Amino acid sequence: MIRLIKPNYNDLVFRQELLSDSDTMSYNENYGGTINFPKEKWKNWYDRWIINPNKKFYRYIYDINTDGFVGEASFHYDDELNCYVCSIIIKACYRGLGFGREGLLALLNEAKNLGITEIYDNIAIDNNSISLFMMCGFKEVYRNDEFIMVKNIL
């Protein structure tokens, strides 16, 4: 059982750990792998995603049973693609336990409650999470050598 939790500023240490974990970020290997998220970047990021989100939504995935964060879920409006794009990252040690499915379904529910009617994700061609998205109602829109674009009508 999970809940989506708006992180406090000091909770960004979890995001820093999540993005710097090579096992967790292995899906991103073709795009640089881990992501540097030093404390100097926290305030600007927090202001844009939490304080004044403007077409952005970001939450931690919180496991009620262990009383801890297991991942993050977000979406934002992408001006280039002209649509909302979602993202979900589950810490590697928690994968395969259902958190991805629960987190993604909760994220879709939040998007629907905010009046969003469709949401997309571009998943790297070699990312195994494609099956998770399909289980949660996404359909393939197109693919190329780099990614598969999927869509869910809410």
Structural write-up:
The chain has 154 residues and is α+β, with helices and mostly antiparallel strands. The protein has helices at residues 12-20, 39-51, 99-113, 130-135, and strands at 2-5, 56-63, 68-78, 83-90, 118-124, 139-143, 147-153. The model has no long low-confidence stretch (mean pLDDT 94).
Chain-wise SSE layout:
Blueprint (H helix, E strand, L loop, with lengths): L1 E4 L6 H9 L18 H13 L4 E8 L4 E11 L4 E8 L8 H15 L4 E7 L5 H6 L3 E5 L3 E7 L1
Antiparallel strand pairs: 1-2, 2-3, 3-4, 5-7, 6-7
Key phrases:
alpha+beta, 4-stranded antiparallel β-sheet, 3-stranded antiparallel β-sheet, 28% helix
Estimated radius of gyration? 15 Å
- Major pleated sheet: 4 strands, antiparallel
Order of helices and strands: EHHEEEHEHEE
- In one word, what is the shape? globular
Tell me the fraction of residues in β-strands, as a range.
25-35%
- The count of DSSP E runs of length 2 or more, i.e. the number of strands, is 7
Average per-residue pLDDT, rounded, comes to: 94
Class inferred from helices and paired strands: alpha+beta
Parts with pLDDT < 50 across at least 5 consecutive residues: none
**Total of helices:** 4
Helix content: 25-40%
Terminal residue distance: 22 Å
| Strand arrangement, major sheet | 1-2-3-4
